[in-house]
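W.,

You were right to be curious about this one. When I first looked at the sequence I had no strong expectations either way, so I just let the prediction run and decided to look at it fresh. Below is the sequence, 761 residues in total, followed by the output.
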Amino acid sequence: MVLNKNDVKRLIIYFIYDKDGIVDDYIIYMLNALRQNASEIVAVVNGTLENKSKDKLLSITNNVIERENKGFDVWAYKTAIDQYGWEKLVKFDEMIMMNFTIMGPVYPLNEMFECMDEKDLDFWGVTKFHKYENGDPFGTIKVGYIPEHIQSHFIAVRNSMIKSKQFQNYWNKMGEINDYRDAVGKHEAMFTKRFSEMGFKWDVYADMGEEYNNHPILCATREMIEKKRCPFFKRRSFMQSYDNIISDTFGQSALEAYNYIDQNTDYDVDMIWQNILRLENQADIKKNMQLNYILSSKSSNIDAGIIKARKIALVMHCYFEDLTEYCLHYASMMPESADIYITVPCEKNKEIVEQAFKQLNNNVQVIVIQNRGRDVSALLVATKKFIMNYDYVCFMHDKKVTQLKPETIGYGFSYKCFENMLGSKNVVLNAIETFEENPRLGMLMPPPPNHGDYYITLGLEWGMNFENTKNLAKELGITVPIDEKKEPIAPLGTMFWFRPRAMKLLFDRDWEYEDFPPEPNAIDGTLLHAIERIYSYVVQQEGYYPAWALSDKCADIEITNLNYMLRTMNNVVFHEGPGAGKFEDVINGLHSEFGYGNCGNALEAGLKNSSLYLNNDGVYNEKYKVDASNKSKDNDKFEYEFDIKKMDNAIREIRWDPGENANVTINDVVVTVTCENDIEKKYSIEDVTTNGIDLGNHIVFVIPDPQVIISLGGKYHVSKVTIEGHGVRRISDLDNHKISRRSRTVFQKITRVCNKLKNKL
């Protein structure tokens, strides 16, 4: 069917979901553009809108449907279809079903509509997903693979198909959609194949070809916009799983698309930031948008007028007398027009600092603070009365790490922070220029340390601080996503540049010294460590993003270190481990090697079946082994009932093997042993011996073949053993941190003993 008339009667069903009930500006921009090419628009919202957002929608269309958040986009479309009814729908030349997951347009939509109107089609889309034959990752697609299909963010259906019984029956008999997998398997992935096989003709407006990429709108976004004039782009481009990106691209997709849209179209890219900063995790945004800035130490092009016009400050906490000259050196890199505030713990230090810093031409003020809260209170308490007067502030503090040996490890951390933030006068000027050029930038920080003992930071960024950070976020009213499985983009080391208005929420808390724990402080897990990680979430809550900054000198070192560590690890994995391959293949191989898969619950943890060994004659063997299956229907629970055959000898001890996998955590374990005369003896997790690591209320098995030994406290004739509890195939960041610290402590003790023996010899 060709639409060769000027007055095409077109209905657009536009689906919206927002967890906060907010309609962001990019949706209004999209609907205004669509309105110029539509006869009617109906907006279907899953959930309830805030009043302001509903008014914004009503300014576009008076047909706004708010419904229960069920059925994803599929049942939102069905709701609108049912409201109109087929008698009314067949009067439209074209009906479009589209949703909020795409942004744009970056080109006038009449280009696309005029092009597609001339084609003899029954249905069409903007983009398609190419056929994926290696199985069904969703587990819901009837044919067992992903067929080539129009992507459901935009599907247009013409009158020839609207009035067909096949299309009407499809929607009349649409089944329940319970989750995203259902939405893909029961609708998106099969819609094109189903109606194509019925003889309906289809096509898409923009595509890069089958061999280029299965998912070009996500992995070749710039090319789709620039070369194919695709008017839309996915909001997910800027925060999708980086696994997808690193497998199929160099990592440039989101950044190249963003820059092209910003520099070559009229689209206001601030609408992208408005939406993703409110709703998405900062770790995903940072990776996809490559939020890393290299600051030249050799030159700067910033206009001198900007430095004079902006109010700039350095806040530096100087605690150690012997580091005064060290701090002075870096403070001298600030522009002479910047104010410098030095906080110190006592009057003696104040005199030392004032004497040293008087050689600077800056306005320098030394403030004596209470020795409570360390560098955190130095910023949040000592400066709270004046910090909001500034446009840009650099916060630094002297640093000694005496608990690590050799002390060069801790010094390296300090060097990394100071050199990246205040490495030279040009580094400072370029940091300021970076804020000037990126109005949504709220914080610049060095990357986390990764040398020496700090290596565990990469992968254990939360340390023992996820729960206390979450609690602090709740207290502050922070609603942006915080996920234990995703790293905070936090200034670990607490040294950073920031835009004060991006930290207003934290300063508005009006901190006092008494809010902080008195000395001595623990080395992890305190309020100070929670604040260290909350900084970046405060910035995001205020509508800004955190980013890494490296001086060119430190960037050279960072690249070398990361390449060396990755190559060294690869050598071990390739030659001594599961072997070489693509990154995703190597990771999957490591999962298999360590008994860890993409799973999390008790059944998938290898706890579906379990074995019990009876110690009859002082040893365990297969002769006295009993198997049982997990009877629990809850994913994270296990419940085994072992029926024991009558044995001539009484049993003193039993051994339970909870599966064969490593990286299993069990807790709330109760063992019930039924003896002769139906006497029951109960044992808890505190009563057993294991080859795992006891972390208080739960046990972690880091090696394969976990074993739990239950001593009965005497000899008994046993008829039945029941074991219940919770189990997951996962080790949390907090547990990993505890295990790493415990291992390091043991290693240090062994080293000390060896050194003593060596000295005696």
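Here's what jumped out at me. The CA atoms of residues 494 and 532 lie 6 Å apart. And, maybe more interesting for your project: The longest strand covers residues 664-675.

Coffee later to discuss?

I.
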